[in-house]
DNA sequence: TTTAAACGTTAGTGACACTAACGAAGGTAG
DNA sequence: CTACCTTCGTTAGTGTCACTAACGTTTAAA
């Protein structure tokens, strides 16, 4: 007669910040597994999407739009440029900047990664009805929107 | 006439795994700030709650109930024991185990930390109605419950 | 009685958010 | 023009956290 598989106390289970941490871990693992199987990364997708949506941009712009720190952006762009998903060239109009441009190969890569990520989201949200998925997205959006550096912060990009 | 503060592409903003990651970071920061201001830690609270709810337990039991790895549990219990919030003594019935017991001081500490955490949750969920907060908690619970090691895994406690 | 498992513990890994500081370039004020 | 401050790309580094590996000890199972 073995002991029952110790339960987590209810008082602990019901704490939103803990639930968020837990689901975020699950979600990240789901996405990460799929992407790394194809030699890709979360951040690659974010950059490619941003370029596809808003056109060529500087590294600092990409940082602000994706939320990836500009110090981390360097490595991401190295990898994307090495694989020819992206071109990186100095901006003649402002010689501090690099102009990052999506290549045709990059666009195809994006479609592929997009499918992988959509798949991961589906698996993540599997136990929810379509209505619940929308509701969850809505609620989370409200939260991230609300908790956010008051305004377009003074200086220094993320 | 400056450029408008670069927006995140909609295609990126609407991805649940990204939203979860974002809110989890905010939530963790909110909780962490309050606790660290009192020299406490997330994990301290989890252990104290578990002891209060389910009584004395071994370190491995605490690990499984809280989700804290038993390798990390060691340091947590060192700190809690040093502050006399918890007693740690060898289990005479099974000399592999330590029995961890909540002290009266620990119980008072718990009440304090509980207030801090409740406060953080309130700030986190501030932009939501009470109904929405419940709904969010419900949805997240479904997700964590669903994505979870199939059954009481073979061996080796977290 | 041999084997396997659980326990507490130490050490270490990898991912990721985040900071600091740098030289180079550009913008602005005197 | 000069001085100053900001932005940009880049390098290096920090702290936290989830997670793994391995160990010696003790207990349970075969």
Features:
homodimer, 158 residues, mainly alpha, two-stranded antiparallel sheet, 7 helices, elongated, DNA-binding
Describe the structure.
The structure is a homodimer. Chain A is mainly alpha-helical and about 160 residues long. Chain A is about 60% helix and about 5% strand. Chain A is built from 7 helices and 2 strands; from the N terminus they run αααααββαα. Chain A has helices at about 10-15, 15-35, 40-55, 60-65, 70-80, 105-125, 130-145; strands spanning about 85-90, 100. The first copy, chain A, has a two-stranded antiparallel sheet with strand order 1-2. In chain A, strand 1 and strand 2 (about 100) form a beta hairpin. The radius of gyration of chain A is 19 Å and the shape is elongated. The model of chain A is unreliable at about 150-158 (pLDDT under 50). The interface between A and B is large, with 58 and 59 residues. Chain A binds a DNA duplex (30 and 30 nucleotides) through helix 2 and helix 5.
Describe the structure concisely.
Two copies of one chain form a homodimer. Chain A has 158 residues and is mostly helical.
Judged by helices, strands and strand pairing, the structural class of chain A is: mainly alpha
Compute the CA-based radius of gyration of chain A: 19 Å
User: How many helical elements of chain A?
Assistant: 7
Please mark out the parts of chain A with pLDDT under 50 across 5 or more consecutive residues, or reply none: 151-158
Q: How are helices and strands ordered from N to C of chain A? A: HHHHHEEHH
Q: Which two chains form the greatest contact, residue counts included?
A: A-B, 58 and 59 residues
Mean pLDDT of chain A: 93
Number of strands of chain A: 2
Instruction: Give the strand content of chain A.
Output: 5-15%
Share of helical residues of chain A? 55-70%
Oligomeric state of the chains? homodimer
